[in-house]
Amino acid sequence: MSEELGNIALEAGELLRYAMDPRETPFQSKRYSALMNQLYTSSTFKVVFENMTQGLEIQILAYSPHGVFVTGRERGPFAFKMEDYKSGMRVEERVVHGLLMLGIAAYCFPTAEVLDQDDDILRPRFTVEQVAAFVQGLCRICKANNPGDPEQGTPELQLAWQTILGLPLTMSTGQGKMAIGSLAGKLQYALDRLVDNGLMRFLSEDGWGTFQPTPAYRIQVKQMAGHQMLKLIQSIHQEATAAQEVKPNG
Amino acid sequence: MLTAPLHRMEGTKGHRIAELQKQDLRMLALRVMDLTIERMGLGYGAMREVIVEEVALLVRRADPTLGLPDAKVVVEIVIEGLLNDTERRQAFREPYASVENEGITWREFTFNLLEEISPDDNIYLRVTIEGIHLYTGMLGFNIEDAQVANEIVLQYQISRGRLSDAVQTAREAEFRSIQYDAQIQGLLNAAKRDIRQVNWVKDALSAIGAARDHILQRLKIEKQILDAIEEKYESAEMEEIQQLTALKQQVNRCMVRHMQLHKLLISVNPDYLDEQLQQAFKISGFNPLPNIDKEILQPALLFTVRQLKGSTTGILRSFAPPQPPRLLSLELLIEKLTAPIREDKPHVLDTRTPELDEIETDKGPFSVEDEENVKLLLQETSGPTRLSRVLEFARQESMPLSTQRLLVLDVLRNFGAEDGEAGYPVRLADEKFKSANFEGHDLTLEVEHE
Q1: Is there a single domain that holds both residue B155 and residue B131?
Q2: pLDDT in tens, B235-259
Q3: How many CB pairs under 8 A join A and B?
Q4: What is the C-alpha separation between A58 and B201, in angstroms, rounded?
Q5: Is 0.90 topped by the overall pTM?
Q6: Residues of A with CB below 8 A from B326's CB?
Q7: Distance CA B395, CA B274 (A)
């Protein structure tokens, strides 16, 4: 192996290290910026970098002036595990957290056109209070459109909007903080995780917490979340339809 | 149509805070756009706080009773209005009727006026192409004519040596070049967005041809202006050199912008043909990205928890970076396990009461003997006596140093005492004295004996 190729592999590894820390940006680090420049100018470097990520089962979501965006492939060594988000959650709690992640994305990107804008264009600042009202509002519309008695049974048989409406909007802990058992507490938890991952900026405590999405959030939602989430919902819909079609004959 | 959001902002201000009553929000909005466009010539745009600071001064001029924080709140409301924050920064939508095939068809014009961008971790405001159109329309003149006029004035000012005026004119010329850039980009974007909106062969191609000629002419004149600036450098004084450098930078920026625009105009026809090809097969209103609210969240709310539980990991994974697994190093593990145990200090403050020893406080620096000696010394005096003499006497009598110190302090206390409070009168003598232990102005004391 030539010395040059060895150096390229070393630098590709260095770029991957930067890519895996979502709080690093090429604007903060000159080294990251130089490696990004190499990515755009050297085809050999790009091939080595992409092969390296493929071998590690890491998926490249996007190359952008804001950095390289990557995620772990399902069942790969870098894959996301539920414990990485929050351990010890009950099924209904997990589902609510997932839906609230969707709620935040839907609030930030109200239409496909807005999501499709340039990555540099910032979305508005918003408060936990506003997103909570938005999600509750959607759930109330669902309730109004389904006036029949809600299905009684285990929490798993409840419809998602019923589970969310069953949560108190706010609840205080003994220390005077927002309890995670409340809707606002769960939203705060979700937004804090997004801040940890460099996808949101925390601005102030106003309105139970004021945040603004970073360009990285748009890139993440645009490149992966949108399609991934749509596919998930479509597959559930297909399963539900198939189950209904099978029932009369069974 | 472009001005409709400004009129709405002004029309609905009565429902908002009282501080808005004496303000014309339309004028403030235009001022925000004006200042932002001005800074767009220098970089990405304007820092939000800079705009707020500057426009707040204008707000206070309209209503001097407002404090600076309230004035800033007013400017923030205007900026939020221009960003359309109440509609979560979606595009403004203005319906309009058009006559088509002798019938009336209602259409919708969508546009943004201001954007907040973060191209480099900092946050800037940027006026959109439609916003620049609005602003240009407000000024009510043709940009091409204004550019030509600016350049003639600039050449004249440089040739006459009126450099500070020329810097101002060059600033305006740069502003016009930004506007012209926006005008051309607007035309091309309209064609790209929907090719049916623009008659390419009849309108667009002729407009592009005219634009190319206009830009070539600008580049030629800008080259002449740069030559004139270079000539001026030779005879310029220090102060003029700074102005000439500023001028040169501004003209250079205009040239770069015009060259980029020229490059764009040269390549625009093939781009248009590609776009035409793509749009011919495009379903109207189709966007490859999903509407997260309507296509994902709302359907998901109607599923049961059981149906959704398998998908939650997938949803949360969408917002998480790769999670690096922790790799075991046996050497490191053994090192950590065998390291000496550190005594963890408790996380509470040490609130134990310290053990205190009593110290002797009744024993002062002077003894009873010293006090007796001082009394004796004072009694020995007769009539006005110098302090230096009394000290000499004490030394001769082998009285301790502490006695002498107490004597000095007692004399000084009586010297500085208020009228009626002194035990005996003390006044300043004309001489100084110096002994082994004391030195300074001598004092005369007069003790009355009973």
Answers
A1: no
A2: 777 777 888 888 888 888 888 888 8
A3: 216
A4: 48
A5: no
A6: none
A7: 115
Cβ neighbourhood burial of B134 (10 Å; 0-12, 13-18, 19+): buried
Per-residue pLDDT of A218-248, as tens digits, reads: 988 887 766 777 777 778 877 777 776 665 5
What span, in angstroms and rounded, lies between the C-alpha atoms of B13 and B78? 10
- Contact criterion met (CB < 8 Å) for A95 and B312: yes
Across the interface, do B300 and A160 touch by the CB < 8 Å criterion?
yes
| Residues A164 and A122 occupy one common structural domain | yes
Return the half-sphere exposure (C-beta side, CA atoms, 13 A cut-off) of residue B109.
14
Element (H, E) at A28: none
Same domain, A157 and A213: yes
Helical H segments across B367-437, by residue range:
368-380, 387-396, 401-416
Are B184 and B67 in a shared domain?
no
Of the candidates A95, A103, A155, which has its C-beta nearest B297's C-beta? A103
- The answer to whether residues B148 and B133 belong to one domain is no
The domain tally of chain B equals 3
d(CA B221, CA B176): 15
Distance in Å from the first CA to the final CA of chain B: 109
- Give the bridge partners for B385, in sequence order: B445
Locate the chain A residue with the closest alpha carbon to B44: A120
Which structural domain, as residue segments, surrounds residue A18? 3-72
| Gap between the Cα atoms of B259 and B412, Å rounded | 90
Q: Do A158 and B304 touch (CB under 8 A)?
A: yes
